[in-house]
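Hello,

Our lab assistant flagged a job as stuck in the queue for most of the afternoon. It eventually completed. Since we weren't sure the result was trustworthy after the delay, we are filing this so someone can double-check. Below is the sequence as submitted and the structure that was eventually returned. Let us know if re-running is recommended.
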Amino acid sequence: MTRMISYEKKDTPIHKLSGFTKLVFFLLWCMTSALTFDTRILLLMLVMGAIIYKVSGTKWKQVSGVFKAVMVFMTINLVCIFFFAPYEGCRIYGSRTDIAHLFGNYNFTKEQLFYEFNVLVKYFTVIPSVFIFLTTTDPSELASSLNGVGVPYSIAYSLEIALRYIPDIQDEFHRIKNAQEARGIEMSAKGRLLSRIKNTAAIIFPLLFSSMERIDVVSNAMELRGFGKKKSRTWYSRRKLTKGDFLVLTFIVLFFAGAMIFTYHDGSRFFNPFI
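-- returned structure --
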């Protein structure tokens, strides 16, 4: 069974990097995507992200289910942007070029389509980086990395436990799903959407409650062992930074600084091809 969005140990350049390096890269990468609306930078990040995805060895089966759900969210968000702010692009770029009339006060404009295209590219620069980060970073190493950048170790450890439980919950969900289908309850794409949602909900809610019970057992066990009484702790899984880590950290810091300078050199974070 292929697990979705779970760490898988591999011998790739991405896996060999320290969790601290990957965390800093991920944060600066997301900040760059969030702060810039320069299409040229976003497209460059899109290409770079595709290369990193290929190098990381992340399997499509690991992320396909979540990616489809994200695509639905992205589509709904872009439609909402258009219907609630149909001329936001015109306001940003200071011009209006109508393409076609839809109905009422709604028109397709080049400026609005270009603005929503940039929003779409932003999603595609960030989402793969989330997948890569989660599938190439050991939860234990992630916790030590978070603690290394100032996050209290109790919070970092909570996140580690949550990430470790995700594969187990996925396995249990698939076991229950297969058992339900063996009893004749249709939960595949062949069934009706509303029926599938209802049948899936019948699995998810009991699964959530059983997961809460697991968390309670683990937290009680940790409390009995005196977890959290001291202000700091050591980490068995923390890696020392290597030459590759320093190269990647230098690159992402310079890339972030360069992207910000390139974006704001004219006082605006929007690239305007309509001037």
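-- support follow-up --
The delay was a queue issue, not a problem with the job. The result is valid. The two ends are 53 Å apart (CA to CA). The chain has a mean pLDDT of 79.
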